[in-house]
Write a structure and sequence with these properties.
The structure is a homodimer.
Chain A lengths: L2 E6 L10 H9 L2 E3 L2 H6 L8 E3 L6 H13 L4 E5 L9 H10 L9 E5 L4 H9 E2 L5 E5 L7 H13 L3 E5 L9 H9 L8 E6 L7 E6 L12 E5 L5 E3 L2 E3 L12
Parallel strand pairs in A: 1-4, 1-5, 2-3, 2-4, 6-13, 7-8
Antiparallel strand pairs in A: 8-11, 9-10, 9-11, 12-13
Helix pairs in contact in A: 3-4
Chain lengths: 252, 252
């Protein structure tokens, strides 16, 4: 058995950890991931060897996962959210494709999807992702900013609801406001914006603002930002993006 | 207690039903949803009253959910996948916003997110959603086709990976090929395409094709289609969209 699970553990709370993810972690002898997220798994990690590599060591983390599994150790590479959305899964496959090592051939991989941050933010706020949407990472560490700008512009032109991942980090602080300015060319300043932080964890916070007022001071590296499209409405504590049922509603 | 859960049950298999969704269904006295999906919940629905309204009766389904909860009956409105992604949640909030009834004020709503079809398709295929992506419904029953075309064009211009929901129905069969033709203006005919059907259910199927060869005959109303972007690669049974780690890989 040379098994590698690539696991999305969801946003953090046990209530959003799927049974498949629970089983993958429980089955594994060794876990690879950030300490912050492994800690959220609580007793499930007891007795398992934990490999906690620092931020920035993503390639090493993916290689280590493949090596441990190739050595016959059932291993889980754990990401928060969904392992396939702005997380570790794609790097494992890139290594397998571009820099395969003979011993990796034996590894059986299972990717376990999970609830991503935008889904929890949307659920807490109502249904802002209720119509066509896109997900964009604002981190330009790996992607040229020009590419990111092209995508934000396209999201504006297509009037997509937008979920921004990685809106800010310790070293990056201007990207969100540049993104805001691009979207303001296509949708009004009053467009509802939802900001989630640490959703489903002890210090969960959900806030609203409007696109025209969105500031870098509203976010940090644990934030997830959803920008409504031109149809998104907010009322009271709820926001939603209609799908077009209006013509089917009764005449009052 | 006037509680309404709006629940995403995931793609179907119990292993992807979150504990939060399990608890919401277990707590509820009455369930509202399609029979197909309620059946997949198995024994969890035993002893609970089921309201199965026909396809097309979405407004009635959302109204019924609010009415039952307002009557003091703990109720779950159940969608497959994520309740907030091309599903029922947004319609409940639209009714609350535009056609509120006095008795609905008492209803406490909790939206429970779930694993959406694109996430399972992506996990089965590797990591095709590994970089910026968008989700577009190809159903023009509620959304004018012109709006959908604008979004597909924007997805092409922004080079987003695209997840197409509702690629075909009994009455709609041409939309997928029109979408394909638009995307072919922006990405090559060899672009990897993943087609998932009934993922996580007994007759699960996952297939690959290329954008230039994608045909309406490849899909039905239970299919989910993921179109790679210009970077997406397929090798063997896997497909992935790199995030830009290439420059960090070792020189072989």
């Amino acid at each position: 058995m040379h098994k590698l699970y690539i696991v999305g553990m969801g946003p953090g709370a046990a209530e959003y950890l799927t049974p498949a993810a629970h089983k993958a972690v429980a089955d594994s002898e060794e876990l690879i991931g950030y300490g912050l997220y492994l800690d959220l798994l609580g007793e499930l990690t007891t007795g398992k060897r934990r490999h906690e590599l620092p931020l920035g060591a993503e390639v090493e983390r993916a290689q280590l996962a493949l090596e441990r599994a190739a050595a016959g150790i059932t291993t889980a590479l754990v990401s928060s959210g969904d392992a396939g959305i702005f997380a570790m899964a794609t790097l494992v496959f890139e290594l397998l494709d571009k820099q395969p090592r003979p011993q990796w051939r034996e590894v059986e991989i299972e990717v376990v999807p999970g609830v991503s941050a935008m889904q929890v933010a949307a659920a807490r706020a109502g249904a802002p992702l209720g119509h066509d949407f896109c997900a964009i990472s604002l981190s330009n560490l790996l992607t040229p900013w020009e590419t990111i700008e092209t995508r934000i512009t396209a999201a504006g032109q297509g009037d997509f609801v937008v979920a921004f991942y990685n809106p800010r980090s310790q070293r990056r602080d201007w990207q969100l406001e540049r993104a805001r300015d691009i979207l303001l060319e296509y949708r009004p300043a009053e467009t509802p914006v939802i900001i989630g932080r640490n959703l489903s964890r002890a210090d969960e916070a959900l806030g609203y603002t409007q696109l025209g007022a969105l500031s870098r001071d509203d976010v940090d590296m644990l934030s997830l930002v959803i920008i409504g499209n031109r149809e998104t409405r907010q009322f009271g504590r709820w926001a939603y993006t209609p799908r077009g049922y209006e013509k089917h509603l009764e005449t009052p």
